[in-house]
Design goal:
alpha/beta, binds succinic acid, 10 helices, Rossmann fold
């Protein structure tokens, strides 16, 4: 009897207890797994501390984060005329900066992130690069990132979409290796440091500077395989220029209008994800009678997204279209539609196909890759493409916005306080206003006169 009671008691009490403890164990394991996903293990970087000299100097502190490319390239066989035969990513950045004249407008430090051609970097390495730039900007006022020019537009846009700091990030490179005659490397490096040190591109996101011209990362593309003025922004033009007397900015990218607001930052905070979760995304180019093989091959490779570089306003062949439908239905692949024309927008899109606006295919790929790393929801991805991807300018004014404009009254803003005008004291002499002397217009002789050329005085 006692045994029976004991048995019943143990079943009644112990079994639920056992289930409870099992559930508790499972939930704590689950919590650890979730935490592990929430807090990925982040890389660390040996960013140099500010030297004592730089700490006390009045100049801005600029760090050059070097990744290699032609700028750090060595001409083959030491031949100073080997413009296109060289080894990219050879010289360490500290040596290159040491060879520059002492910078007039910045104190310069260096961090060697890597030293190779731009095309050799994996997306996981770009994840590290972005975090390294942010780590450097915790110490320094601004950063120059040197890369090869081949995939510079993609690397720069990846940084633009992921770096969290509002401080200036200026990407530069060169079309000729460091050690040939007429190299553009030293001048580009010097000028990029000048742009970064000026602080004028703070809140702009990442900009690209080569050949004294400053471009927005989202808009810039390499347009020629060899020329030194290869970088161009087909629909938009430059943001500004750097000359001896000044860094001049003539227009701002759309995100700069959100400076200081929570909307300025993109949703792509890399510190919240592991680099292992960055998905594969490919690009497919449309052409006359293109088969669907390129899409099927990428799907087989495991891509989560594909950007199509379509003809005209984003058109793709019937072969690609059928392969796209199958990839969406069978594999849930997300597509972004862009144009192969080199400029112009693509609109529309429905279901798993998103319009890429005027992002070129390489830029759209980075935007899609990051979107897919942070969401599986196509409507969310579409909305990010329409906001961060499209970068449409919208100016909003609220009650707290302080405006200074000559048309204040017209737009109904509260009147500014009248300045206090003090009456002139008796001692103050009234200004004597004399009538301007009117001179007779010079008599123009009929005979032709060679105009006298004025000598231009150039001040250093
Ligand atoms: C590269 O992209 O690394 C090589 C080409 C260049 O830097 O111009």
């Amino acid at each position: 009897m006692t045994e029976l009671v004991k048995g019943r008691f143990s079943r009644k009490v112990l079994v639920p207890l056992l289930i409870l403890s099992l559930l508790a164990t499972m939930s704590s394991v689950l919590a650890i797994m979730v935490r592990a996903e929430e807090a990925p293990v982040l890389p660390t970087f040996d960013i140099p501390a500010l030297s004592e000299e730089h700490k006390t100097s009045a100049l801005p502190n600029v760090i050059v984060v070097a990744t290699g490319g032609t700028l750090a390239g060595a001409a083959s066989n030491g031949d100073k005329t080997n413009f296109q035969s060289y080894r990219a990513g050879t010289y360490p950045m500290a040596d290159l900066v040491a060879q520059l004249p002492k910078h007039k407008t910045a104190d310069v430090s260096t961090y060697q992130f890597g030293n190779k051609g731009s095309g050799g970097y994996t997306i996981k390495e770009l994840y590290d690069l972005s975090l390294a730039v942010d780590a450097a900007l915790e110490i320094y006022d601004s950063a120059v990132v040197t890369t090869g020019t081949d995939t510079m537009e993609e690397i720069a846009y990846f940084l633009d979409l992921t770096v969290r700091s509002e401080k200036p990030v200026v990407v530069t490179g060169a079309m000729r290796p460091w050690d040939v005659i007429g190299t553009d490397g030293p001048a580009n490096l010097y000028q990029a440091i000048k742009v970064a040190g000026s602080g004028k591109t703070k809140w702009f996101g990442t900009v690209v500077m080569l050949n004294d011209v400053i471009f927005a990362a989202r808009e810039v593309t390499k347009s020629n395989s060899h020329r030194m003025d290869t970088f161009d922004t087909p629909m938009f033009g430059a943001l500004g220029y750097v000359d001896d007397p000044a860094v001049r900015i003539y227009r701002a990218p759309a995100r700069a209008f959100k400076a200081g607001t929570p909307e300025w930052a993109t949703p792509f905070d890399l510190k919240t994800i592991s680099k292992e979760t960055l998905p594969q995304v490919g690009i497919v180019y449309n052409y006359q009678e293109a088969s669907g093989g390129a899409i099927r091959g990428l799907v087989e490779d495991g891509v989560k997204g594909i950007v199509t570089a379509g003809t005209g306003a984003g058109g793709i062949s019937s072969g690609l279209s059928a392969a796209r439908s199958a990839a969406i239905t069978n594999n849930g692949v997300v597509f972004v539609s862009t144009t192969r024309t080199g400029s112009g927008s693509v609109y529309g899109g429905s279901g798993n196909t998103v319009a890429g606006d005027n992002l070129n295919a390489s830029h759209a790929r980075m935007m899609l890759l990051l979107s897919l790393a942070f969401s599986n929801d196509v409507s969310q991805i579409r909305s990010w493409f329409q906001s961060f991807g499209t970068a449409d300018v919208e100016i909003s004014v609220d009650a707290n916005t302080v405006l200074s404009t000559s048309v204040d009254e017209e737009i109904g803003l509260p009147e500014l306080e009248e300045p206090v005008v003090t009456e002139p004291t008796p001692e103050t002499e009234e200004p004597v206003v004399s009538e301007p002397e009117v001179t007779e217009p010079p008599v123009v002789e009929e005979e032709e006169v060679e105009p006298e050329l004025q000598e231009t005085v150039v001040t250093p």
